[in-house]
Amino acid sequence: MSDAAPGDAIRLDLARALALAGPLEFTETGPLHPGTHPADPTPLGDVVLARRDIGTAYHLAVVVDDARQGITHVVRGADLWEATPLHRLLQHLLGLPVPVWHHHRLIRDASGRRLAKRDDARALATLRAEGVTPERIRRQLGFP
To answer: Which of 19, 63, 133, 143 has the greatest number of CB atoms lying within 10 Å of its CB?
Structure first.
């Protein structure tokens, strides 16, 4: 029997991971930060990789998932830009392929809140069922 409690976590020892990896970099093609960047996840600290109550945490899951699917170009919202150095480090430590990243601006609603499924944003199908036209949706999102 384990003495681990439900909230206990497995964390990345960032200092040790960085010492093992050495200098890393990644390529970004998005409009906000185009170019090659050093992969320094130091601001994130010793991130949680897994917890008993949630299983594998996002950062570990996403790099393994991308590799298993053969993803060569990762396209994510700008809110995940700061996590990219950590993802690059995890890829290196796990011997996974290195994709190219592209972070896009966030799509927001009329009040400025981002539209995301984790925030219960309404699906396009729901909006259409409510009678919202494609033209109105495009206008609201800032598209011509």
So the answer is: 63
Question: Residue 64 CA to chain centroid, in angstroms?
Answer: 12
Amino acid at 91: Q
- Between 119 and 137, the more confident residue is 137
Task: Record the tokens describing residue 106, joined without a space.
Answer: 């966030």
19 & 39 share domain: yes
Does residue 1 surpass a pLDDT of 60? no
- My answer on whether 20 and 78 are in the same domain is yes
pLDDT at 4 over 80: no
Of 87, 90, 11, 4, the C-alpha closest to 53 is 4
Alpha carbon 78 to its chain centroid, in Å, reads 9
User: Using an 8 Å Cβ cutoff, are 54 and 60 in contact?
Assistant: no
Contact 19, 63 (CB under 8 A): no
